[in-house]
Design a protein that fits this description.
The chain is α/β, with parallel strands linked by helices and 393 residues long. It has eleven helices and 16 strands. Strand 11, helix 7 and strand 12 form a beta-alpha-beta unit.
Length: 393
């Protein structure tokens, strides 16, 4: 019978190697903050109302969003420009596919403080400063266990409490989402922050997306871990930008598969935003459905017919009050990042509509106008004041 000391390992080296994570991030990165739901890192899309819809008060890193649009309009391009402008202002690396450098000249500039919409911290009261520190963390959570649909059904936060996220250890707020003005153009100080990836017209047997994956993978490998990369793909599979064989399932689906693999390989450094014209590739086709399955988030824009703009204000307006602008289309959320991947159910909550003005893109609940003959409701809509029906419980 042999004897040996207890609690002594039989084998193994005594040298302890520190654990290293090749994809770790520094403590603070501009334009990145923790989700109020589960703490995952998120970045802003440049549109506060779209950040609220995504369920994490922003777009979670390592995910992709596909914006589908019906008709011949191009409202999705506005969301792409907001997304790109936010990344340029935050110092992120932009990768734009299929378009030339002239596309960057149309990015909106940061809006000048006016009308109290983005009031500075010094002009706020003590209660407002305290609300700025906690509002973004708690007010969008909704009821416990209600899911993201409850957060979307709540009223939108005050702009001052959405764009600034404050660290409790650091009283100085950092701007998470800027306000942009579509009437002005953004001045890009560092042209290297925008990388334009052309689509090469090759033979039908070779995928036109190979150059995109090669360029993106090279940038992710050589750049520091503190750099956030934003991949922007305007008008995916549009005949004006892509060759005819780009829509072959063996090319486009393989590209989305590879892109999804890169997003999972770099879950804290890469996000993707792309648009798809449903006029050319309707949702009834199998190709579009497979493309949706390979994207983490899918949002459809359905603009209203132009004939609705000429109708009477009492019947054509979907705004809650006379001060609000008329909606220009409906928003249908088919998939949400993270939520659907974990087995989330259908999208619930109010119907959503979008409004594009000269200075902003807003997504809000769609409210039907009052019924003709309801004088009290029509008077309240015209005055912009709550009626008796609104305040009764």
């Amino acid at each position: 019978m042999s004897f040996r000391k207890r609690n002594v390992g039989l084998s193994g080296s005594s040298v302890k190697h520190p654990k290293t994570d090749p994809d770790t991030l520094p403590a603070a990165i501009p334009g990145v903050r923790a989700s109020p739901l589960d703490g995952r890192l998120t970045t802003s899309t440049g549109t506060p109302s779209l950040d609220d819809i995504l369920g994490h008060s922003g777009l979670a890193l390592g995910n992709s969003v596909l914006i589908e649009e019906n008709g011949t309009t191009d409202f999705g391009a506005t969301l792409l420009r907001y997304f790109a402008a936010e990344g340029v202002v935050q110092g992120h690396q932009m990768h734009v596919v299929g378009v030339g450098e002239s596309w960057a000249r149309e990015l909106p500039a940061v809006s000048v403080v006016a009308g109290g919409e983005t009031a500075p911290l010094e002009s706020l009261t003590g209660n407002e400063k305290e609300r700025m520190k906690i509002a973004w963390r708690y007010e969008r959570l909704g009821d416990f266990g209600a899911g993201p649909s409850s957060a979307r059904a709540t009223p939108a936060l005050d702009r001052k409490s959405v764009i600034n996220s404050c660290n409790e250890k650091d009283p100085t707020p950092t701007t998470f989402c800027h306000t942009f003005d579509l009437t002005k153009r953004l001045t890009i100080s560092d042209p290297k922050s925008l990388v334009f990836i052309p689509i090469h017209l090759k033979s039908q047997n070779e995928s036109p997306f190979l150059s995109v994956l090669h360029s993106l993978r090279g940038q992710l490998t050589t750049s520091p871990n503190s750099i956030i990369h934003r991949l922007i793909i305007p008008n995916l599979l549009s005949p004006a930008l892509y060759p005819p064989h780009a829509s072959n399932p063996q090319h486009i689906l393989q590209f989305l598969h590879s892109l999804r693999a890169l997003l999972r390989q770099y879950p804290r450094r890469l996000v993707t935003f792309m648009t798809l014209p449903l006029m050319l590739y309707p949702r009834a086709t199998g190709l579009t459905r497979w493309m949706e399955l390979l994207c983490d988030g899918v949002i459809e824009l359905s603009p209203f017919p132009h004939s609705m703009d000429t109708g009477p204000p009492s019947t054509a307006s979907g705004a809650a009050t006379a001060q609000e602008e008329k909606p220009q289309g409906m928003v249908n959320v088919h998939r949400l990042p993270v939520f659907y991947e974990r087995g989330g159910g259908g999208i619930l909550g109010d119907d959503l509509a979008f409004t594009v003005s000269r200075r902003k893109f807003v997504i809000r609940p769609f409210n039907l106008p009052p019924v003709e003959g309801d004088i009290e409701a029509q008077a309240g809509e015209a005055d912009g004041k709550p009626t008796k029906v609104d305040i009764d419980f």
